[in-house]
Amino acid sequence: MVNRNTAIVICPIDKDTFRDPDYKLAEAVGLAEAINLNVVSSRFVKVGRISPATFISAGVVEQLAAEAAETQAEVLIVDTQLSPVHQRNLERACKIKVIDRVGLILEIFGARARTREGKLQVELAQLTYQRSRLVRAWTHLERQRGGGGFTGGPGETQKELDRRRIDDTVTRLKRQLAEVTRTRALHRKSRAVKPYPIVALVGYTNAGKSTLFNRLTGAAVMAQDLLFATLDPTMRQLKLPSGRQVILSDTVGFIDDLPTHLIAAFRATLEEVLEADLILHVQDVTHEEADVQAEAVVDVLGDLDIDGEDNVRVMNVANKIDLLPSGERGKVTREFADNAGAAISAVGGQGIAQLLKQIDTRLSERDTFHEYTLPIENGEALAWLYRNGEVIARRDNKKTIKVRVLLAEDKVGMFEKKFLN
Prior knowledge:
Layout: E1 3-13, H1 21-33, E2 38-46, H2 58-71, E3 73-78, H3 84-94, E4 97-100, H4 101-112, H5 116-130, H6 163-191, E5 198-203, H7 209-217, E6 234-239, E7 245-250, H8 260-265, H9 271-275, E8 278-284, H10 290-303, E9 314-319, H11 326-338, E10 342-343, H12 352-364, E11 367-375, H13 379-388, E12 390-396, E13 400-408, H14 409-420
Parallel strand pairs: 1-2, 1-3, 3-4, 5-7, 5-8, 8-9, 9-10
Antiparallel strand pairs: 6-7, 11-13, 12-13
Helix pairs in contact: 4-5, 5-6
């Protein structure tokens, strides 16, 4: 009897692999476990020369085929991007389903998507991925089941779909996502009536973004020791020590070697990052590959045309400092503070007060407080202040309205030239 929940995981390593093989393999196993697969075997495989037929050598393929038969595993996960030819030949040789790194991430996304937007983006990304793999199971068309589509089901009956139907579906999905983007733009425009700066959380998957989000806002976003626990974006209002209100946005975690087309599919979700006034790059400083993970996030931000090393817009936040030895904790705290960042524990709460002050400071660096007395009938000027600044206090009299407003320097001149001259 085939065990439909078991998998073998291999991690190809070549001379150009810059990551520690053990940690790279551990991440691949974590990805498999994120969709409740029971990994019966895992190891990294050295690749001297890529085989045109199967990516890995014939000898390793024979070993995997024997191991698959012995363990009765159903899935072989190969932690790299495989061509359709590689994938097909490995399936034939090992007689089990083969999923590469991209396919596995898409399975996780399929299991995590909850909103209509998230499901649309997952389906678009899966269709794009599957377009060149028409011989494979069309499990992505059965969205209600979520992840684990490799195990078969109603989606199996869709194998004969041709590229024309795929292209038609992709066009429809892009049109629907364009409507989602338009709706988001309208929401942002409506927020401009009472403008709040947007602070977006980004970071490597499982860095603790959602835990920090919950700590700051009192929300109940799913936060587990699980890769890609958060997929759909969540936004909440947050009050800073100065009284300034901001919108805090939690986003999907990034990961190393994330395909460009996958980033493109989720661009609508990441629009809040694109529009953010301040981006908090949350980093798990206890991880042995913290630097590699941080670099991966900077690379993904670069794909979004955001300079991940721009200290004006991006603030580095060291998380999980409570798990560091006391001596190292002080060193990390000083290092991040010296670079206008912060060091915290999202779980324990250490450093949270300082983080909020730092966010306040960063957002206020180019803003100044101004007080204006406006005629009661000058509603246009008042509306302008609400759209372009942050009204901190307001007092209405019979003939005048007195406001205290926080304005960026360039906005001050614009307002005074337009309404006070």
